[in-house]
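User: My instructor asked us to take a sequence, write out its structure as tokens, and then describe one feature of it. I'm not sure where to start. Here is the sequence I was given:
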Amino acid sequence: MASYQWPPLPSSGGSGTVSSVTFTGDGTVLSSTPSSAVTTTGTLTATLNTQAANEVLAGPASGSAAAPTFRALVTADLPAIPATPVCYIWEQQASGVNGNNNATFTLHTWTTRFLTNIDDHSTGITISNNQMVIPAGTYDIYVTAPAFNVNYHKTRLYDVTNSAVIMYGTAEESVYQSRSSIQGRFTTAGATIEVDHICSTTVGSGALGLSSSTNIGTGVIEVYTQIKITKVG
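Assistant: Let's start with the prediction itself. The structure tokens for your sequence are:
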């Protein structure tokens, strides 16, 4: 019975010998100087070219596709970097209106600071009834709030949802107007948070920030408590 091989086996080729083999690089990434010759057995070793500092192997910085070379990075090489989520919150009143809308500052009582305006950039924070509604995350915060003629005063950042103080602000003296500030980092699972203020002497309108209209003139808006919150995680 006949037998067949499929596909057919190739016929034997010619024969020859190699007496010496070297490796020569492209001159860009690998050295174009030939490596040491291998004449019997051995390993061909390529050598990297030295390059200037702060350069990368990349295609052209612009234009049509081309073979890569070493060059400095350009702006188009870099991915877009998302802006850091940040939120600005403050109390704003009409000219001549004192802080907390002319409220009295009562001694030894934590008074919630008014928050009337917000400029949010991707944090998801909102304000309602002078409180901040803050989504879950980790945040850096800076707060500054004024007091006038109340002797000593101090601020705190208070978690209304969990009935807990997050952090306290600086203790200040205010024979004239001065500001207590809060600065730090906190993490929340999502909470309603407010800024509170306490003082050592009861004073009427102006104690939570004295308007500037008397000395500057009417028509100038008043700004009191100011907050910057940056989402970092």
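For the description part of your assignment, you could build on this observation: The chain has a mean pLDDT of 91. Try explaining in your own words what that tells you about the chain.
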